[in-house]
Amino acid sequence: MKLEAIQVTKNYGGFLALNQASFQTGPESRVVALLGPSGGGKSTLLRVLGGLLLPEAGVIRVDDTPLPHEPEAALTTLRRNGFVFQGYNLFPHLNAFQNIILPLQVVHGMTDAQARERAMELLTRLGLADHHHKRPAELSGGQQQRAAIARALAPRPALLLLDEPTSALDPVMTGEVLDVIRELAEGGQQIVLATHEISFARKVADWIVFLAQGRVEESCPTRQFFENPASPLAKDYLAGLSKYR
Amino acid sequence: MPDRLPATRVFWSLLLLAPVSLAIYATFAVVHYSWNWQPLWNYRSQFVWGWLTTISISLGAMIISVLLGFALMLGRRSPWEPVRLLSSGIVEVIRGSPLLVQLLLGYYIVATALQINSPLLVGTLLLGLFEAAYLAEIFRGAVESIGRSQWEAARAVGFNPRQTYRYVIIPQAVRRALPGTTGELVSLIKSSSLLSVIGIEELVQKVRVMNSASYTALEGFIPLAIAYLIVTLPLSRWARHLERRFAYET
Hints:
The complex is a heterodimer. Chain A is of the alpha/beta class. Chain A has helices spanning 42-50, 71-78, 96-106, 112-125, 141-153, 171-186, 198-204, 222-227, 232-242, and strands at residues 3-12, 15-24, 31-35, 57-62, 65-66, 81-84, 159-163, 190-194, 207-212, 215-221. In chain A, the strands form 2 sheets. A 6-stranded mixed β-sheet of chain A has the order 6-7-8-3-9-10, sandwiched between helices. In chain A, a hairpin with a 2-residue loop joins strand 4 and strand 5. Chain B has 2 domains: 1-33; 40-245, Orthogonal Bundle (MetI-like fold), CATH 1.10.3720.10. Chain B is built from 10 helices and no strands. At the A-B interface, helix 3 of A face helix 7 and helix 8 of B.
């Protein structure tokens, strides 16, 4: 997969979340990690790349095809991707099983039997088979996030986008969720991941996009980023993060 | 909230009811009110007719108010400005003016101009419209209390706006709107007594006629209150049952 952003600008009531951000990954990047300080534009860029947000200006290209802006076509693009959020964002009135089945039936036109089979397959794979009938409030944070990953994976998305999926979790649950993401990456799933877990990014990602203040400061293969970052902001960021670990 | 043991509940209800009944009895004893129930009995069929009229108007108006209230709520949230303005205008004017005025103008001017002669039909429509304005705001409050992350999650799984309302927002909003909606529907039943101004002989009007015809002062009003409670109490009970059905932790 090749991801490309050209002069992308996104504005939240006067706050420039993305300020003419541009980058281009290598042609065969499978796992792209978005790194950078909080408020730097990672989450916004992730949403724009997945088609969840439309930028005010600029173009996103996935494998050289630009993302459409018309609402209907944008929704079609969006439906090919899967999203996982920091706050899990499961539907609280539905149990884990229903959370997965509902979009499969309503959006992807699966029959009840197909949707149930697919949901059970994923819940089992993510270790949630015994909890499938529980509502989000009855699940731990790690279980909720794994259910959210199952929901995002169920329609077999071309691209799985994860927005700081472990930021709200304790270290043990973080480990559970990162294991799942690594297995997916190793299984060939194309992933875009915004994260503060730099050692995880270093192990799993093959391309790094580093953002600060709404701009892409650096975009390069993972090894190069960690061994020899070019931008001074990236150097400071890495130095700051590795201080206590 | 699980149901308490019926036995405990009966015990407490009786214990609370006893002093209340005693107080009511004592009050009437102090003012030396002499009850005269006999003439009332002669009007029983009128009373039942009035009660049935009140119930049918209320039921019709409830259905209208829920549907129209929902439409007005959607209108106020429409992306299209004229629709938003129109819905807000309707809600504000109806909520801000007395039902009495709406009934008089609606029936004697608007309905006459449109050559609609049925007071029952016009009254039901006007009452439904009146409550719809209140329900629209209760519904809007409930919908807008659903967090932004739920809207985003709904879009992220690929729902279009209609599917988002249907599968994500409304199921969660119903629970939040229920207590306020029940209160509004109970108040609708009681507001229906105003329809006598356009010549509908509903329950309150029947009782007034009955009282003046039989030279009694207050006798009619006690069965009247009971007749209202026969409808409003089950309605509240049914609403609590619905609230429990929609209950889930967030």
